Protein: Acetylornithine aminotransferase
Amino acid sequence: MTDTPTRADFDRYMVPNYAPQQRIPVRGEGSRLWDQDGREYVDFAGGIAVNSLGHCHPVLVDALKAQADKLWHLSNVYTNEPALKLARALTERTFADKVYLCSSGGEANEAALKLARRWAHDTHGENKHKIVSFRQSFHGRTFFTVSVGGQPKYSQGFGPVPGGIVHGEFNNLDSVRELIDADTCAVIVEPLQGEGGIVPATQAFLEGLRALCDEHQALLIFDEVQSGMGRPGTLFAYMRYGVTPDILTSAKSLGGGFPVGAMLTTDRIAPVFKLGTHGSTYGGNALGSAVALAALEYIDTPEVLEGVQRRHERFREHLDTLNSKHGVFQGVRGMGLLIGAQMAPEYEGRAKEILPLAIEEGVMALIAGPNVLRMAPSLVIPEADIDEGMARLDRAIARFVESA
Structure:
């Protein structure tokens, strides 16, 4: 390999389960990135809703450097101060009494689903094992979580899926009534579907799920891996709805770029995870916990959370203006700084064609399925960067329309 890796090296050395863009970023600061050739980009992708404070935010860099000189990893044979501080901070700021730390959102959801089944087994018996999920949902890439997720393309071809999993229609409470029964141990839902197209749950839907779970003695799990940690304009989306789950999962923005995940639950449920029932080699890692604590304390402030909604409105204004010129979207939806623009019927399924054009114009965006252009930028992205990035996106979409 040459001293400077190229995009061709990905195809040469990496398993082909990704198809990254041709440009390779090498440096980031705030909401700007620079590639190997020194080209600059405005980052609306945010590492897929991970870089909650942008790139190399000094609060996170300082936390990482300070902890790097003290302690990196111990394993769960021991505990460590950063992990304990992070767990305490999460419980003090949420409904939860107990926290399980891990390395990713998939791990957090795996833990949540196992906890729910173990709780139901120990509390009600082995028949209470059924899990209700929703079509178009996404909960991770472990075999259990892709099976629970409502997108069969992610589980097909890997053999028989785990049993006891059924899928209703998101935002359709009647579909849940047809599925939930005495054998249901849990309902898992994203308050804001991410990979399914940036679709917020309705107030009545989440309130109805809470009532159905209470009626059938099932647990309500909120997957807030993508929607949480300040992204909705509150620390977690459940706070915005006023509907409290029994279990909540977090990752992505929790670490601000460092791989961290967490499952939060209550004293009523947590005790069934007895010694040895579950674990994670890197869960509660001192480095990750120190960074996540710094991110949590910085994000959970009025200045940041109130700023999210202002930035949301600025994005919406730009998208409306852009769409009035080009007519590429049939609607814009989302919550806080997780925003989706659905393609108009004449451009159905072509959202991904905008991404390389956007890169060429100097702005990074995402898709959420084939039909939604997604933006998940830093929670503290400067308004000037929003304006500049949208101007670049405007040029990219103009080129897309011209070539369509």
User: Anything to note?
Assistant: The chain is about 40% helix and 20% strand. The mean pLDDT is 96. The longest helix spans residues 302-326.
